[in-house]
Design goal:
Shape: globular
Largest sheet: 7 strands, mixed
Structural class: alpha/beta
Number of strands: 14
Distance between the termini: 19 Å
Radius of gyration: 21 Å
Helix content: 25-40%
Order of helices and strands: EEEEEHHHEHEHEHEHEHEHHHHHEEE
Length: 403
């Protein structure tokens, strides 16, 4: 099957805009890019109307099943709601111009299989299944009442573990469940009671054990981490990425560059939550808001330092903690910390694809996978146009128009 997208202006990061182009897609691959293309008689033709064609975006930190991580909703809803939520969340994500996600906790193998079978419109997914957390740490959801609010079902192991033997076994359980990478809660967080973002979690021996077991299967390990000490522990242990990185400083940023550790700052999530708050029925809303006040104040400034030091920064949003469909608002926050528009676009396309080990994704280029978006305005002039989903006219995934 062939599809021809005519009359578009191609935008790739760090390249001049290639105007008045036609894109020939065969099956799921871009076969030819030219101002003039000869095609078969039965080709499907789409007029791009002189709009802008970009690679589809990759959100490197999302939670596609989640809807705020409210314990009250987990208590009230049957388990099936956890899965059904993924259907509208997926459509919102696609409509925002995101064709792939790296899910940092809550989605299981069922979603990946459903997406591959095209059971509903959804982004492609790289799975962590469930994060590893220590007893009493971030996302240990056993409450003071004695009720354990951590979701568990066959194929979705609990993440709580302590000590070398337990973290080794838990890493293996998560691998067995179908994970593509391992996620570790290496500091306190905002959403969990009785933890604080500035404190490190897990010790170095535990962290090194997790990394060693993951690398035995050529898997990366990612750390939820706000804490400066926690970040340094993870860097020393051999982690591949730090998520959030709120209290990062110049010395730690330089260390990340030296050790080739990536930062996914998720700048959007803290500012969105602080601005919009939590539901009135959230029993822990006041505690969460108090934590956010300090985090919002320092996060942007510290990530700017990391960028200036040359840390590899990728686009991630923490969607699921906040409502889905706002994904590309993160690009404006990345520009605010010093990135150029083209750098911001690269952080969510070609650089993200490279981090995920996909060398044929993230560019509008011949022999690359045809995950593409068509936009009505040039985002190199104003990155904020990508924040409005109405400006994203069409989305193609594997060459198929899904928006």
């Amino acid at each position: 099957m062939q599809t021809l997208i005519e009359n578009v202006n191609v935008i790739n990061p760090f390249e001049e805009i290639n105007t008045n182009q036609n894109i020939l897609i065969e099956d799921n691959i871009i076969k030819e890019i030219s101002s003039s293309i000869n095609t078969k008689k039965d080709v499907k033709v789409i007029d791009g109307e002189d709009n802008y064609l970009l690679p589809g975006f990759i959100d490197c930190h999302a939670h596609i099943f989640a809807k705020g991580f409210h314990k009250e909703e987990n208590m009230a809803n049957p388990l099936g709601i956890h899965f059904y939520n993924a259907v509208p969340h997926s459509l919102q994500t696609i409509n925002a111009g995101v064709t792939s996600i790296r899910d940092c906790g809550s989605a299981d193998l069922s979603f990946k299989l459903a997406q591959e079978k095209k059971l509903f419109i959804a982004p492609k997914i790289h799975l962590s299944i469930t994060p590893l957390m220590m007893t009493g740490g971030h996302f240990d959801l056993l409450l003071p009442s004695g009720f354990d609010m951590e979701i568990m079902y066959p194929g979705f192991p609990k993440g709580r573990c302590d000590g070398i033997e337990e973290v080794l076994k838990k890493t293996r359980e998560v691998k067995r469940a179908g994970a593509d990478f391992i996620k570790v809660m290496a500091s306190g967080g905002v959403l969990t009671t009785n933890t604080s973002p500035e404190f490190a979690q897990f010790n170095k021996k535990e962290l090194k054990t997790i990394v060693k077991e993951a690398k035995a299967s050529n898997m990366k390990v990612s750390a939820h981490c706000h804490s400066l000490k926690g970040m340094n522990n993870c860097i020393d242990a051999g982690f591949s990425s730090i998520e959030h990185g709120t209290f990062i400083d110049k010395k730690t940023a330089s260390k990340m560059v030296e050790k080739n550790v990536t930062l996914v700052p998720t700048l959007l999530v803290h500012q969105f939550l602080y601005k919009n708050g939590f539901p009135a029925w959230d029993s822990y809303a006041a505690e969460k808001t108090a934590k956010l006040k300090d985090i919002v104040r320092v996060h942007k400034e510290n990530v700017s330092v990391a960028y200036e030091q040359g840390v590899n920064i990728l686009m991630g949003t923490d969607s699921g903690v906040i409502p889905h469909g706002h994904n590309l608002e993160e690009l404006s926050h990345l520009v605010d910390i010093g990135m150029s528009e083209t750098e911001a676009i690269a952080s969510g396309t070609v650089k993200a694809a490279k981090y995920l080990g996909q060398d044929n994704l993230g560019l509008v280029k011949e022999n690359y996978i045809a995950d593409l978006i068509l936009v009505n305005t040039n985002p190199l002039d104003d990155i904020s146009v990508l924040s409005d989903n109405d400006n994203i006219l069409s989305v193609f995934q594997d060459g198929i128009k899904v928006k």
